[in-house]
Amino acid sequence: MPVPHPLLSVVRRRGASSQRGFSLVEIMMVVGIIGLVMAIGIPAFVQTTRKDPMRQAVSDLVEACSNARACAILNGAATEIQFAVKQGSFKVVTGAAAQKPGDPDARLNTKPPEVGKSTSSVPAFSGQLSESLVVEMLDVNFKEHKDEEHARVRFFPNGTTDEFTIVLRWPEKNQYRKITLDIITGQADMDVIR
Q1: What CATH number is given to the structural domain containing 60?
Q2: What global pTM score does this model have?
Q3: Domain span including residue 182
Q4: Rounded to 5°, angle at Cα 175 from 143 and 125
Q5: What CA–CA distance (Å, rounded) separates 54 from 172?
Q6: How many domains does the chain have?
Q7: Which of 78, 95, 122, 136 could be bridged to 167 by S-S, CB 3.0 to 4.6 A?
């Protein structure tokens, strides 16, 4: 009986293994299934990563309050959030227009900011509410400002702040969110109303 050559057995094994691969049809089916899963999954992924208008507004307002409080404490000067209520915008501003705690009307909030005038060269933080949101209530020092042109909330170097409450409504989802400030600590708190 003749002994097979070792090289011949390797060639036979390689030939046999190449017949066990995937066909073009099988590969195309897998690529099609992967494409279908991605087509279904990508819009859902984008939806979860993009903030809805209510979540974005709450996040921006809480960040503005935190930023204003930090600026007031670190700079040793009053800082304020100025709201352009009709436009739905707000900005954190430090400077001369933010009154000091010793001023007689510092806690009364009687003077609205002048239109177009900034109290510092650059706002520390600014934001814009979505047009799909409605400001249901904007109280500063227990005075309603939602129907006025401007409102401002002051933060003082000792960590205190004006009383502030804002209620936002998203009619599309019938959601309400309330943001309030603790007047002693200046910390913002958000409550889900509905």
Answers
A1: 3.55.40.10
A2: 0.64
A3: 53-192
A4: 60
A5: 10
A6: 1
A7: 136
